[in-house]
Design goal:
With 271 residues, the protein is mainly alpha-helical. The chain has 2 domains: 1-50; 59-268, MetI-like fold, CATH 1.10.3720. The chain is built from 12 helices and no strands. It has helices spanning 2-46, 52-55, 58-71, 73-105, 107-122, 129-136, 140-164, 168-176, 181-192, 194-218, 224-233, 237-270. It starts with a helix and ends with a helix. 28% of the residues are buried. The mean pLDDT is 88. Belongs to the binding-protein-dependent transport system permease family. This is ABC transporter permease. It holds the Pfam family BPD_transp_1. The chain crosses the membrane at residues 25-44, 78-104, 116-137, 143-163, 235-258.
Amino acid sequence: MKSTINETELLHEQFLFSIKKEKKWVRIYQLLIFILFFGSWEFASRERWIDPLIFSSPTKIWHLLLVKISDGSLFNNLYVTVGETVCGFLLGTLLGTILAAVLWWSPFLSKILDPYLVILNAMPKVALGPILIVALGPGLSSIIAMGTIISVIITTIVVYTSFRGVDPNYMKVLQTFEANRWQIFKESILPASFPTIISTLKVNVGLSWVGVIVGEFLVSSRGLGYMIIYGFQVFNFTLVLLSLLLIAVFATIMYQLVELLEKALIKDEQE
């Protein structure tokens, strides 16, 4: 019996070791791809295999980054864009989830609105930018509205589909205990849909950045979107590429934060 337990522990340790080894190799390969990409970019730019005026180089972008940090302009623009994106992300997710809950609450209303949701989802939301600017004014509110509207419909559709997909047996069990509709939603529908809501958050990270950057293209005088459009106007593509890399970095940070939230929620459910 004791030898069987030791053998099981040994297999478990070997399994954990293999997972750690795999993670280590994944990190190594990710680092190699990173080094290879930026190394090749730098080399190709110096050897003029690519046009250094258009594609710049990592060292030029790094030097520009240091300049922008030293004069403080980077943080001013970064602060504006990250703030707008977080607001658009939270509002889009919250409004989409509330709308999905309303549709689940009223099947009659969901039948009425279903074709309109499909039409709104198919519509390119960025095309609404000029209308939002006229309606809300060329400022912060119209940019946040762009970041919100681009994710709210897809959030509604995905979360509502998840609500409807919850096993009806859960609801039947609660109904046998005379639970009302709110209690069914709180105890069964919403917890069962957490994985889908988290997945929607991950999608909304990218969508919110797209909406905010497009909004800044149109009206803003500050932010990373403004830096991109300004760099294009003065033919400073080092500035454009710096802005794009910053967007990639901060979008990744937001995505990682959502993953941490996912792990925390899954851990709580398992406990």
